[in-house]
């Protein structure tokens, strides 16, 4: 299997609960990610996404003033080259059918149900990178 360079990854975590956001960031550091941005809501997340251009976003669904579904829709409609196709993984306790369908229709790269383990986090990152050609070219040693 090809090696993924986690240390080259830029990941944005959007989560309104401080404890959960800190836990996700800790798991990402344990995976080997060094560049981690943090936001507490989708509105701030959109601004940070345009500024930092992360490879991947882990985003909660239920937040204010902009929730994860609104964030996802905003990303897909943004007119900034490269940003509109950013890989987004939902991190949530909400597995309702409507939420899952909306997420899939708007090109979410994955869905992790909280609480998340280190293995689940690494497996989802690996899946997204290996199945996204631009990320694979940039982050994998072939």
Automatic annotation (TrEMBL):
Keywords: Phosphoprotein. InterPro entries: CheY-like_superfamily, Sig_transdc_resp-reg_receiver, ST_Response_Regulator. The modification 4-aspartylphosphate is found at residue 60. GO terms for biological process: phosphorelay signal transduction system. It holds the Pfam family Response_reg. The keyword Ubl conjugation does not apply. It comes from the Bacteria. Residues 10-129 form the Response regulatory domain. This is Response regulator. It comes from Azospirillum cavernae. The lineage of its organism: Bacteria, Pseudomonadati, Pseudomonadota, Alphaproteobacteria, Rhodospirillales.
């Amino acid at each position: 299997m090809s090696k993924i360079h986690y240390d080259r990854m830029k990941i944005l975590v959007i989560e309104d609960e401080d404890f959960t956001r800190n836990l996700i960031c800790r798991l990402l550091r344990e995976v080997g990610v060094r560049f981690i941005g943090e936001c507490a809501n989708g509105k701030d997340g959109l601004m940070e996404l345009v500024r930092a251009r992360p490879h991947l976003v882990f985003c909660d669904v239920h937040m204010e003033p902009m929730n994860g579904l609104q964030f996802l829709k905003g990303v897909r409609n943004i007119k900034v080259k490269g940003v509109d196709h950013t890989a987004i993984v939902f991190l949530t306790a909400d597995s309702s059918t409507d939420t899952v369908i909306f997420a899939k229709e708007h090109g979410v790269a994955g869905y992790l149900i909280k609480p998340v383990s280190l293995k689940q986090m690494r497996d989802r990152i690996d899946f997204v990178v290996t199945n996204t050609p631009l990320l694979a070219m940039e982050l994998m040693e072939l």
